[in-house]
Structure formats: C-alpha cells, structure tokens
Amino acid sequence: MTYAKQKPELKLVISIGANIPGILGDPIRTIAAMRPEIEKSIIEWNVALNCPKIDYQNIDKSLSFQWAPLFETAPLGGAVDQPSFINTVLVVEGEDFASLTPNKKAAICLMQKFLELERIAGREREKAEIFWGPRSLDIDFISWGELHINTETLILPHPRLSERNFVLIPLAEVLSKSQGKPKRINSQNIWPE
Fold first, then answer.
1. What count of Cα atoms within 13 Å lies in the side-chain half-sphere of residue 45?
2. Is residue 191 part of a domain?
3. Which of 105, 92, 98 minimizes the C-alpha distance to 54?
4. I want to staple 136 with a disulfide (CB 3.0 to 4.6 A). Which of 23, 122, 155, 182 is the partner?
C-alpha cells in the first residue's frame, strides 16, 4: 500500500503572554494593544520574503491570523510569588505564505521583529534579574512548519513546547476551530485512563 505524500504544513505558531503591567497597561490591555502590531510585523516580514511575487492589492488577505482566546495560567518556573500570566497563541498561514520555504535566516529575522515589539511594550530582556521572571510581554516563536534550527537567538520548534500547557491548550483551541474537536469515546473499561 502506498500513501500520497502530503505537503508539509507551513503554519507559523506564536505564543504571547504577559503577567505584569507595562507601558501599555495591564497584561490583557498589553496583549490586545500588541495584537495588531504582531500581525503588522508578520505581514511586513511576509512581504519582504515574497517580494515581488506578492499581490499588493490583496496584501491583507494573503495571510490568515487565527488567535486563541485569552487564558490565565500559573507561572512556570521563575519567582514563586509572581502573578498569573495571561496567554494566547497565534497561528498564521496563507496562500502566499505557503509558497515560502521555512529557513533559518527568515525565522531569525521574524524573531528580531518580535523582540523589538517586546521592547516597545516595555520589556527589557537584558535587565531581567530572574530567569522566567515577570514579563510585561513575552512573544515566543514556537514553530514554522517542519523547520528545525538551534541558534543562540532561536530554537525551533520550541524545545519545551510539550511542557507548556499555556501554549498547548490555546493552540488546541485554534486548531479545533479549523479541524474540529476530537470526539472523546467511552472506553468501556478496556482503556484505563
């Protein structure tokens, strides 16, 4: 039996979180204020990668931005007395985007855009006293298709993805919108849970 080889999924997965007020307000206001800025950065990045192939008339329709709801989660690691986080996930895909080949240079370029957005929101990574401490904005690049890279700046896919419910649960919400939720079945005492 042979199976048709499927085209790899070229989705971008980004995780966004905050747990302390920043210059844009409380964590919810910060994430809401940065949402259009994150989308704009990804659009500009996509245009730069696709130029001149991209159709500027339909630039706003060339990508699909699928946002998860906001979730409140307990901090993982870092200071024990820090506030809960507000988290969401963004999944990006699109026609023009699907023609790109995920690559290290482009991924690092996008991560630099995210780091700049964190700075705009008041985060100073260089001055962080506590690893995994409180943050006014945290934008994590989780994955881009099947791209695997390991640099000082970026590791893809995110190495601790399977340990992070604050990414997995919002991601499942986004995917269930497009793929449908799995149906849980009764194990009838055959399958212990």
1. 22
2. no
3. 98
4. 122
Q: How far apart are CA 102 and CA 104, in angstroms?
A: 7
Rounded to whole angstroms, the Cα distance separating 149 from 157 reads 8
Q: State the residue range of the domain holding 95.
A: 12-179
**What local confidence, expressed as pLDDT, does residue 76 receive?**
75
**Would 145 be classed as within a structural domain?**
yes
Asked whether residue 184 is domain-assigned, the answer is no
Beta strands of 2-84 (E only): which ranges?
12-18, 64-67, 71-73
pLDDT tens-digit series, residues 60-119? 567 899 999 999 988 876 666 789 999 999 999 887 666 778 999 999 999 999 999 999
Closest CA to 87 of 34, 136, 18: 18
**Enzyme catalytic residues:** 123, 135, 138, 140
The domain tally of the chain equals: 1
- Identify whether 85 is part of a domain: yes
The residue ranges of DSSP E strands in the chain, in sequence order, are 12-18, 64-67, 71-73, 85-93, 138-144, 149-150, 155-156
End-to-end CA distance of the chain: 33
Q: Which residues pair with 88 in a beta bridge?
A: 16
